[in-house]
Amino acid sequence: MSNNFPPDVMFPNLGIQISNLPREAFSLFGLSVYWYGLLITLGVLCGVLYAYYEAKRTGQDPNNYMDFAIIAIITCIIGARIYYVMFSWELYRDNIWAIFNLRLGGLAIYGVIIAAIATAYFFAKFKKLNIPVFFDTAVPGLVIGQVIGRFGNFFNREAFGGYTDSLFAMRYLVEDVSFIPYEVARNIVMFEGARYIQVHPTFLYESIGCLLIFIMLNLYKTRKKFDGELLLIYLTCYGILRAVIEGMRTDQLLLWGTNMAVSQILSVLAAIFGVSMIVFVRRRTAAKGV
Asked: In which order are the strands placed within the sheet that holds 16-18?
């Protein structure tokens, strides 16, 4: 390979090289459209379609989920941005208008999750629907959206972990990465004259983990013990997954005035809440003899 055209991304221990990984997918009327936004949009569409067909399968009105999706898309984008800005205020305090520029990233998944759950609760309550059933129908769609949407971080060269030489070690060209932590910078590697960071692809770990959660929820949905259990299983499994992955990431959002990763704290709390509620509801159900 010519030194003039080094690969943009490499997985050296897997023998994978990607020579062209642009952030911009295409330009429309002079406006750049980025892969980050396209992949998030694709994830949302797949999630909505899943909920639509799951509603039909279970005898619900699928139009309720289409109506919910229209509202949730708006509230989740707002929630994701608010969460990110709250814990990255130093990036925006001198340029407030930058808060409204979403094309280059800056959306936090926990903002999406919080907004999605809150929106689903109030939507189902307003429509007089069975709230636990609504959650169980919608939550696997949220997970498949996470599976796809995480690859937006791949194109954006973000949400990676610290240095590693493990099987899945990933390399980005130094000049393509906007922020390089010290731990990563002191382990720069050279390949055919080009400088690379070599890191954990935590976006990939999370995407694969969410895919496994999605599969598990689908295998278990006909065996669940009570309505709402799928949501609690998701909170438990994703909480554990994200707590581990968040500890590996180098771009953690920190709780104000501390060195604690706020998403890691929320992950632990979500997992504890999920397990506790599953145990509580099952015991209460058993006590009633149902």
From this structure: 16-18, 9-11, 170-173, 194-199, 189-191
